[in-house]
Design goal:
CATH architecture: Orthogonal Bundle
Order of helices and strands: HHHH
Distance between the termini: 20 Å
Number of strands: 0
Number of helices: 4
Length: about 90
């Protein structure tokens, strides 16, 4: 589930949802489904991490449940995402 911190960052960004989605390489309906809990949004979901990265929210703070380490399958917050020109999906 998406964290309240990420939801607040989305609200406080001053951007429309379709703009955030576009900056992160997501279709606006996918973005809507993610933030409304209809699709994905589980800890480690790379799409949610991309949204957080764009808005300056660390990956471990994008989800209600903390990310777990260990098997290397989890996405990280290590890419240089955060500009309109960059593709946010790692």
């Amino acid at each position: 589930m998406i964290s309240e911190k990420l939801r607040a960052a989305i609200r406080d960004s001053g951007l429309r949802h379709y703009q955030i989605a576009g900056f992160c390489g997501l279709h606006f309906t996918t973005f809507s489904r993610l933030i409304n809990g209809i699709e994905g949004g589980q800890p480690g979901d790379r799409r949610v991490i991309a949204i957080g990265r764009f808005l300056g929210v660390p990956a471990e703070e994008c989800f209600e449940e903390p990310l777990k380490g260990g098997n290397g399958d989890e996405a990280t917050n290590s890419s240089d995402c955060g500009t309109i020109e960059s593709n946010c999906i790692p």
